[in-house]
């Protein structure tokens, strides 16, 4: 009997260690779960954290996405808004948006973006960019008001194109956009066209994209080179919020309140009108899930 007690005493530290490892593993797997339990968590190489989700019951209203050919789309591929990065902490998503184009002797094209209720085009990260000579491009849109911005690019001949890579107004121009835009439309002013420069610049382009991403190249003025290079669209940063109210209002309605982890709290979005959720100090994970924030 004494021998048995000795063996048990010797084995006890090992059992405690094994149990600790198991608990740590369970805690780690709970903390690392980003999707709602039972829902698809990845598509291609992108993790899809709740409130985003694929399929009925897997997403918060307005955050439905689809997985098609290993790519993630807002709603589905017919939206033509492909998502390639989601920041849960910062309340941002990188997506691709379309390029508007207008060629000599053709009707001007346009590109629109309807982000939906909880998403806006990041005013800090993006610029309206136009590429072309004798080109005036506009961005019209809505926040609480009807707003607009435009920029003009002028180059009389090939020699007057800026070769520095900057959007200086000589072949390329950029301008800031209004905050909290949830709908935008990129168009051209038909009073300006490429008829006098069509020999080296038959088409003009305009798009809303991350300002630090785009570097102008004079070759983009030739033929249809810019649209061929970026045929899948350009990267645009969207800001998103869990709700459009501020924290003190949001917490009054627990049926729609998003910060449901008991170790989470509400914070005001630094980039858009509304609120986000974050785990309390000492906790990590997904604050939008009931058991999402776990201690270290």
UniProtKB/TrEMBL annotation:
Q: Which molecular function terms from Gene Ontology are attached?
A: polysaccharide binding
Keyword annotations: Signal
What topology in the membrane does the UniProt record assign?
Single-pass membrane protein
Q: Known InterPro entries for this protein?
A: WAK_GUB
- Every copy of the Wall-associated receptor kinase galacturonan-binding domain together lies at 39-95
Name of a matching Pfam family: GUB_WAK_bind
Keyword Signal present in the record's keywords: the answer is yes
- Secretion signal span: 1-31
Q: Where in the cell is it found?
A: Membrane
Statement: the UniProt record of this protein carries the keyword Signal = yes
Q: Which GO terms describe its cellular component?
A: membrane
Its name, as the record gives it, is Wall-associated receptor kinase galacturonan-binding domain-containing protein
What organism is listed for this UniProt entry?
Answer: Aegilops tauschii subsp. strangulata (Goatgrass)
């Amino acid at each position: 009997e004494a021998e048995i007690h000795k063996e048990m005493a010797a084995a006890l530290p090992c059992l405690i260690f094994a149990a600790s490892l198991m608990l740590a593993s369970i805690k780690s797997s709970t903390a690392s779960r980003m999707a709602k339990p039972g829902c698809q968590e990845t598509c291609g190489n992108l993790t899809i954290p709740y409130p985003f989700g694929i399929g009925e019951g897997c997403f918060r209203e307005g955050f439905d996405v689809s997985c098609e050919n290993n790519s993630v789309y807002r709603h589905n591929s017919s939206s033509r808004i492909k998502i390639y990065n989601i920041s849960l902490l910062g309340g941002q998503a990188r997506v691709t948006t379309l390029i508007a184009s207008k060629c000599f002797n053709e009707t001007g094209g346009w590109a629109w973006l309807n982000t939906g209720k909880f998403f806006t085009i990041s005013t800090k990260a993006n610029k309206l960019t136009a590429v072309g000579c004798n080109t005036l491009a506009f961005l019209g849109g809505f926040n609480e008001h009807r707003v607009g911005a435009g920029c003009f690019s002028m180059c009389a001949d090939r020699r007057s194109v800026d070769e520095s890579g900057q959007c200086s107004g000589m072949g390329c121009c950029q301008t800031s956009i209004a905050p909290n835009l949830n709908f935008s439309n990129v168009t051209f002013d038909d009073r300006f066209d490429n008829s006098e420069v069509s020999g080296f610049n038959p088409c003009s382009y305009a798009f809303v994209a991350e300002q630090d991403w785009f570097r102008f190249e004079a070759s983009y003025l030739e033929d249809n080179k810019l649209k061929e290079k970026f045929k899948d669209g350009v990267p645009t940063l969207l800001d998103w919020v869990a709700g459009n109210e501020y924290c003190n209002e949001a917490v009054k309605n627990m049926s729609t309140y998003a910060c449901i982890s008991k170790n989470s709290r509400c914070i005001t979005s630094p980039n858009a009108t509304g609120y986000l959720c974050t785990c309390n100090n000492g906790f990590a994970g997904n604050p939008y899930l009931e058991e999402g924030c776990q201690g270290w």
